[in-house]
């Protein structure tokens, strides 16, 4: 074999190796496009702060025992791992990526303080790698609609609603107001107009994610509106905080419970809710309002539903508890220990 042919073989092999490396790098780092109907978490979980998100047999969650760092575990609560050091909330997941809000202003998060990474919207891989900050600055109420992330932030000392592509491009202000972005349905966000808007109007509005146009959808004095499977749910402030549903197909309205509801989470065929009528209790019922069962006497916060368990905290405590989402109603303390 002559030297010229040998050099040709070596050069060709090197070039082929470079091409393969480029292809592998591109496939690993590219941001897959989501379908237009993709959402990142359930409306109920996001209404409760987005501290838990289930996807692909995994639960991604904010660990209150470890400065609210991002952890993952299997849906049966096994195989627990720490993914990132951020103080996280409003967790969303789609495809190969996790999206969340970070708030590292606490003095306990020394590494983030030294790096100056206090606030923002983050994208990372399912194992916590390929960490990218998509937006810097105070952020909250993150949700995913297709390939667009919607979140609240501050611009020129004013609260606004932002949109940004999942690849970190095309950031824009959708609305010059901050709204609850938790309920994404068919490319729209359904929300109760907030008190911060400076008006007495608390009707349910629908905002189109593609252009930020917003219209009044249901007149009323409402709170915590969400849409799940073509049914609108909201707390009716003019009817003693009764949890109410409206079927969007035929506009049939139904009062699901006359209890004074202050927090709820709709998950598949059940609804978990906190009531403050007389005795303050945490309850579960079917989505049509039937079969109401008391889970706990007292106040709870952060109701987060997954396929097997529903997680929550007692008011004023960071201790996690869980109950079977559709099964036995016995509550258990849930302690997190990384494997």
TrEMBL record:
List keywords of the entry alphabetically. Answer: Membrane, Transmembrane, Transmembrane helix
Task: Identify the Pfam families for this entry.
Answer: DUF5050
Q: Does Membrane show up as a keyword for this record?
A: yes
Asked if the record carries the keyword Membrane, the reply is yes
Please list the residue ranges annotated as the Prolow-density lipoprotein receptor-related protein 1-like beta-propeller domain: 41-323
* InterPro entries, alphabetized: LRP1-like_beta_prop, SrfA-induced_signal
Which regions span the lipid bilayer?
7-28
What's this protein's name? Prolow-density lipoprotein receptor-related protein 1-like beta-propeller domain-containing protein
């Amino acid at each position: 074999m002559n030297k010229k042919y040998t050099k040709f073989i070596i050069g060709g092999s090197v070039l082929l190796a470079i091409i393969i490396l480029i292809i592998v790098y591109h496939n690993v780092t590219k941001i897959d496009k989501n379908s237009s109907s993709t959402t990142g978490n359930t409306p109920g979980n996001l209404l409760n702060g987005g501290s838990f998100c289930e996807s692909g047999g995994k639960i991604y969650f904010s660990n209150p025992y470890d400065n609210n760092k991002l952890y993952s575990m299997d849906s049966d609560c096994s195989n627990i791992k720490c993914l990132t050091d951020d103080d996280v909330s409003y967790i969303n997941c789609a495809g190969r990526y996790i999206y969340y809000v970070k708030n590292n202003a606490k003095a306990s998060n020394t590494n983030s303080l030294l790096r100056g990474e206090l606030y923002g919207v983050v994208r990372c891989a399912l194992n916590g790698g390929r960490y990218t900050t998509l937006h810097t600055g105070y952020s909250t109420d993150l949700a995913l609609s297709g390939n667009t992330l919607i979140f609240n932030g501050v611009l020129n000392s004013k609260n606004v609603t932002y949109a940004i592509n999942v690849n970190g491009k095309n950031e824009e202000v959708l609305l010059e107001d901050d709204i609850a972005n938790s309920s994404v349905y068919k490319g729209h966000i359904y929300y109760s107009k907030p008190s911060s808007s400076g008006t007495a109007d608390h009707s349910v509005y629908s905002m189109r994610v593609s252009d930020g146009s917003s219209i009044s959808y249901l007149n009323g004095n409402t709170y915590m509106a969400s849409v799940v499977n073509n049914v609108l749910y909201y707390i009716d402030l003019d009817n003693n905080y009764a949890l109410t549903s409206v079927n969007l197909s035929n506009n049939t309205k139904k009062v699901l419970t006359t209890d004074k509801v202050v927090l709820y989470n709709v998950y598949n065929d059940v609804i978990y809710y906190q009531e403050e009528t007389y005795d303050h209790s945490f309850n579960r019922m079917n989505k049509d309002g039937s079969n109401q069962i008391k889970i706990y006497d007292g106040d709870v916060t952060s109701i987060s539903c997954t396929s097997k368990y529903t997680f929550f905290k007692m008011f004023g405590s960071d201790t996690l508890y869980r109950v079977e989402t559709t099964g036995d109603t016995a509550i258990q303390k849930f302690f997190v220990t990384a494997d």
